[in-house]
Every structure is written in structure tokens, then in C-alpha cells.
Amino acid sequence: MLSFYNVQNQHYSSTRRKFLQMGTLGFAGLTLTDLLRAEAQSGIVNSNKSIINVHLDGGPPHMDMIDLKPEAPPEIRGEFLPISTNVSGVQLCELLPRMAAQANQFAFIRSLVGSAGAHDAFQCQSGFSKKDLGSTGGRPALGSVVSKLKGTPEDRTPLFVDLMQGRGLVRNSARPGFLGPSFQPFRPDLSDLFERQLEKGMQSELKRLGNDHQVSLKLNPTLSLQRLENRTTLLSELDTIRSRVDASGMMDAMDRFSQQAVSILTSGRLADALDLSQEDPATLARYTPANQIEKPRFYTSEGPQAVKKFLLARRLVEAGVRCVSLSISDFDTHSSNFDRLRQLLPIVDHGLTALVTDLEERGMLDDVTIIAWGEFGRTPRVNSKKGGRDHWPRVGPAILAGGGMRTGQVIGATDRTASAVKERPVHYKDIFATLYRNLGIDPHAVTIEDPHGRPQYLLDAGRHIAELS
To answer: One short Pfam family name for this protein (predicted)?
Structure first.
């Protein structure tokens, strides 16, 4: 797993050394070269539009976040008070003060419907149930579709990066479906030695070209993870790797797809994006909560450093990644709902607002669409035994920002107990229609072929949310 917190030293540790552990983009023995070759077959030109998909793992409670019901009975309204925002008439939970101060930069969906009711983030990755087209491998995640449609041989970073480390229930939710393993997301927490993967890819390419020469390129026997903590050392080692590849003549023997694979893994561009030690200290401080909990009582992905996942997402997008997924766990609040939220909501509040502000200052906000949501909402009534809220697929929340959208508004409404939608239901597929639109893709006109050669539209229902246009 991509480490953010060094347990022994009790401080934030650089993620740069993890780059050398990535090794493979996919699964089932497929190499980065395989992915690049498959992407290039689409022939579609890339763009700068991007998606940052924030999964609130477990099912966020709408009535404790963006749809409070202060007039409801105590067992429904819960323990938190609503606070005013900088948008007239809009109130949020008191644990979201930063978002309240920047509410004009967010759109709050209070009427998300269509949940499959499953603890699986796949619906937040594609709009579909994981069972849809199951006989052909299932529907692909949006990021996998983007890799298929937008990828080119000239890309210097993978187009889809998945940072959804967290609970096992969601860890593998970003799936390529019927597009196959070549369109898996890049997973920094999947490890393999860099030099072993590079050598394997080169050997595979020679074999494909009919060359029986055996590669015996030893990149550097002293290349250790401990030494790679130092940035200067790493850059030197990467330069050495590239020089040895060039000197061996292997680059001339490989086709352009393999050359790109070597280029991505040796250029350092992806490594740079994952190395937060390169970030400006003032920006890094922006993503560092002043009162973070050093020893969280309840599980959260990456513990007190979870906010830095939002910074990683920005850096990856800046490096050329078109879709980044990340998760914040654990909103599965069957027990201790309010104590858990006192720990979790400040992370979401700080992370989303820091990300929006950062993107705006860099002139990137109109090109990057941010969506934060979960697999369903939670029960209006607090269970009396454990003080928790249980699963509630009938309605849930979603928060959108960026992408050139009209923000500073609430869309949809629920009844007095937050039990059901009474105004403007918004389906998961409506959200995805909006995300695709923001990427410049018409999901009802563009098709991709399934394994049987049948064209499948990217969405079979849903319309972009007109209020955001």
C-alpha cells in the first residue's frame, strides 16, 4: 500500500521510493507496454480535461453532512447543528466550516438515487452495477474508458491512476470490465521491482520481434529502496538506467510502444508527481490540518495523512493523468456514527477545499471536475443500540466542484426526515453523463466494442445535469 505514515519514525515519509516498486501497470502478467499499445489503437487525441473521483467509502450520511434536518425528531436529526454558508439559504454541517465558507465553489446534490445497495465503489466508478454485462466481463470504469478513448503513444503518464487504498471492499473497485486488463488503472500500491519489470518487458519485446538474444542487463545491483529516499540519488539512478538502456542498443530494437514504456518508467515524471517532498512547503502546509489526530480512534485510509491524497491527485493531474480515484474511509457508520464523523468530516472538509483553492490558483479548476460521493446514504433513524446509521440506498449525497460548472447551488431535496427524494432526483448515471460531458465525450453517441464485437454505448441512460451547465 502507498505509505503516507511511517509508523516507526512517526512522520510523513516520501513516496518517491514507491515508484521503484510499482513495476507493473496491470494484472495477469501484462506490462506497461501492453497497455500503451492497446491505448494507441484508439487513435483519439488526448485533452487536458480531467476527473478527480473521491469515494467516501462506506456510504456517507447525507443528513449529517449536506442535508441536515434540525426540525426532525432527535433520533433522526442527530447531534450536529447546521451552519450558514456564503451562499444565501444554504446550510451545511458544523463539521464542514471550510466548505461552508467556500460553498459558492461547490454544487451539493441532495437527491442522489439509483444505488445498487452494495458495498462496492464500482457504481461510483462507472454508473453501473457490477452485475451489468457480467457475462462479458462487466462495464468498464470511467477511467478505463478514458484510457481507451484518449490514450496516445505519446503519453508520458498513464491516464488512469487509482489511489483507492483503503478497506478491502473498495480496493479493487476501479475495474476495466470488458475492456480487459490492458486498461486497468495504474495502482501505485501494487509492487514489483522496477528493474525486473523493465528487463522483463525488454525481453518480451525482443521475443515478439523474433530476436533470440537474451537480455542480461543488470540495471544496478546496488539499487536499494533505502538509497532511493534521497532525491539526488534517485535521479542519478534513473539516469544510469536510461544510459544503460540506450548504450545496449535495446531502444533501437523495441517498437515505439515499448520505448514509451521505458520512457515513462525512467523519465521520472510519474515519480515526481508522487514525490511530495518536491512540493512547495506553503502548498504542502495547505494540505496539512493544524489539529490532525495522530492516533485516530477509528479507521481512516492513511490515517492523519489522508488529506495529502488530495494533493497527490492534483499533482498527478498536473503531470498528465486524466482520471484519479481516491478514497477516504470509513463511512460505514453502523456504530458510533457521530464520533466517527467528528474524525472523518474534517478530513473531507479540509481536503476538498484545499484542492479547489489550489486548482483555482493554478488556473486548472475549469479543466478538472471533482466529484465526492459514496455507494449509498445512511438511515435517517439512528439505531438505538450502537448509535449508528445503517445502509440507505433510497437516497444519498454528492458534492461537485470545478469543471467549468455552475456551482454555489443545491440540487434536489428530500422529505422532512431525509428518507426519500421529494424534488429533482439525480441518478448515478446522470452524474456520469455530466462527467463525460466535462471531458468532451458524448456517452450516448460514443461506443466501445465488447469482447463479442458488439458496440456498447458508454451509458445506456442518464442525462447531464442541466443546472450545472
So the answer is: DUF1501
